[in-house]
Design a protein that fits this description.
heterodimer; A: FAD/NAD(P)-binding domain; FAD/NAD(P)-binding domain; 2 domains; 11 helices; globular; B: alpha+beta; Ubiquitin-like (UB roll); two-stranded antiparallel ribbon; 9 strands; binds flavin-adenine dinucleotide; binds FE2/S2 (inorganic) cluster; Metab_Enz_Cyan_OpOx_G3PDH (chain A); FAD-binding protein (chain A)
Chain lengths: 405, 113
């Protein structure tokens, strides 16, 4: 076991890294706590171009088949809860015992941030990703009719997926303003961020609107006159001027209280109205799931464009700790195709250290492939992800020059 | 309230899967072999997996992918297991999480403090 590379996370980053390593005849063990291989790729389903669907289950099956063909080992339902360096080895503590390796890749992906809203602990309230997984992976409806709180790329994509599965989405709305929802509860801020996903909107109104909306004054006017009942996208009202102020129900979700909000996000008194729904999704956005890097002792940097705190790493996917690498959403929030491309870079970097036939040009090409994949991405979680990536590059260069001097 | 999505316009028909049975709070339920406990229960209309240890308020899944521990239940005698990432197996015995005694507070309540 000690001679094999260990990858934590069987998402697109981990799977692509495992395949690349195994193709170089390097032994790999992939550890994941979930029931199936595929990570968050499993739930994904969207139309990339007319009639061409990105089907996460099919993609995961394809990757898994290739990995199995190359004798990659998998240890599912295995949660890594601690990580330490003993002599030259990374030692992993899991519910299925202790694992040792000299070369470790963390590909643990992302997690969703919640919005705390009164009533959010009632059964039937779940993260928007939870509804996606229930619907597309487990094929169980999260409910009959729901409301999604939080207007962003992920929530619009999942709203459409729910609709395809015949689950009714009554509305996508803002969360009520409180200390934890600052930007997500301000109609103008949300409108700003939505402009970057307007190409995904089949609604000509949103598409045309967004062209005009690059101008600040027009933007303010736009939000002031934004229809109170929302603009429909895929037949679902997107309500930038309404917020959920409470989720109600006795033993489970029975409805939500919606109120009209002013352009600064404050509630218009007396505008509260109850609508009946049997489930509620909270969409607070994604952040890198990086606790294991933190346990390992990696330095962290807050980079908003990458989704939050990110472990220090370079373009080759190395951290500053010997034998510890990162790939995928742990390095910043992006779509699955970027994660796949990053996994390959990490694997080539590891393979070259293990003496496999990998040239610096191979690694450089794989890095360029990450960049082109990013440039062509269908889903961009942060419009300025490139700025974020550049920041990390600079921080790495600075850190390195400090250690050298 | 909830139901299985037997056919899906893009993902196709649900493949035929073997069934297993398990108990949740001594009631017998069926599940597809290998599916998550949370999904099996939700498909049968069960959303409440436990009550809050102190307040007794009902709780169900939140993240559905193992991150939040909101779905913790007792499985085959083991406490704190996540229903959303545990596959159902034949004969599994599942118990919902219960409220725990809060002795000092209860004493105060009963003594009118
Ligand atoms: C809920 C959710 C929904 C998303 N939906 C979309 C979408 O619709 N479209 C899109 O483009 N992107 C989506 N994303 C973004 C997604 O993160 C990327 O598309 C991509 O899946 C990232 O790949 P990854 O390999 O980095 O991580 P992931 O795909 O997240 O895989 C990470 C894996 O690591 C495992 N893991 C994590 N920690 C541990 C541990 N301690 N022990 C053992 N195993 C562990 C997890 O179980 C998981 O399987 C979503 C993300 C989330 C969180
Ligand atoms: S619902 Fe979050 S861990 Fe199970």
């Amino acid at each position: 076991m000690g001679n094999k590379v260990i990858i934590i996370g069987a998402g697109p980053a981990g799977l692509s890294a495992a395949i690349t390593l195994a193709e170089k005849n390097i032994g790999v063990v992939v550890i994941d706590e979930y029931l199936y291989e595929g990570g968050r790729l499993l739930g994904q389903l969207y139309e990339e171009t007319p009639n061409k669907w990105w089907n996460g289950i099919a993609e995961s099956e394809r990757l898994l088949a290739r990995a199995k063909e190359l004798n990659v080992e998998f240890s599912l339902q295995t949660s890594v809860s601690d990580l330490e360096k003993i002599d030259q080895d990374w030692v992993l503590h899991t519910n299925k015992g202790v694992f040792h390796t000299k070369q470790l890749l963390l590909a643990t992906g992302a997690a969703e941030s919640p919005f705390p809203i009164p009533g959010w602990t009632l059964p039937g309230v779940m993260s928007v990703g939870a509804a996606q997984v229930m619907t597309n992976v487990h094929r169980v409806k999260p409910g009959k009719r729901g409301v999604i709180i939080g207007v962003n790329v992920l929530s619009s994509a999942i709203a459409m997926e729910l609709q395809i599965a015949d689950v009714q989405v009554a509305a996508i709305t803002l969360p009520a303003a409180n200390l934890l929802t600052i930007n997500s509860s301000n109609p103008l801020e949300v409108m700003n961020s939505l402009l970057y996903v307007s190409h995904m909107a089949p609604s000509p109104l949103i598409k045309i609107g967004s062209k005009f909306m690059k101008n600040e004054i027009l933007k303010k006017l736009g939000i002031r006159f934004y229809p109170k009942d929302g603009v429909k996208m895929w037949g679902i009202p997107i309500m930038l001027r309404k917020a959920v102020i409470e989720i109600v129900g006795k033993d489970q979700v029975e409805g939500v209280v919606l109120a009209t909000v002013n352009i600064d996000g404050s509630i218009v008194p007396g505008s509260e109205k109850r609508i009946d729904v049997d489930f509620v999704c909270i969409a607070g956005g994604l952040y890198p799931l990086a606790e294991l890097a933190s346990l390992a002792g990696c330095p962290f940097h807050y980079i908003e464009q990458l989704g939050g705190f990110v472990p220090l790493h370079n373009e080759q996917m190395e951290t500053n700790l010997t034998g510890l690498h990162v790939a995928g959403n742990i390095t910043g929030i992006e779509g699955a195709k970027v994660a796949l491309a990053q996994g390959k870079v990490a694997a080539l970097t590891i393979a070259s250290k293990l003496g496999a036939s990998v040239t610096q040009i191979d690694i450089q090409q794989a890095i360029e492939n990450v960049e082109t994949t990013r440039a062509n991405a269908h889903i961009q979680f942060h419009p300025e992800v490139l700025v974020g990536r550049q920041k990390m590059k600079e921080i790495w260069a600075q850190t390195l020059s400090h250690t050298l001097s | 309230m909830t139901e299985r999505i037997m056919s899906h316009p893009i993902l196709g028909d649900l493949p035929h899967k073997e069934k297993v049975s398990f108990t949740f709070d001594d009631q017998l339920y069926e599940a597809y072999k290998g599916e998550s406990l949370a999904a099996a229960l939700l498909a049968q209309g069960i959303r409440t997996l436990r009550v809050h240890e102190e307040t007794g308020h009902p709780r169900g899944i939140y993240c559905n992918i193992g991150h939040c521990f909101e779905c913790r239940v007792n499985i085959n005698g083991l406490d704190g297991e996540r229903a959303c990432i545990t596959p159902v197996t034949e004969g599994m015995v599942v118990k919902s999480g219960k409220a725990l005694p809060t002795t000092v507070r209860d004493w105060r309540k009963h003594h009118g403090k």
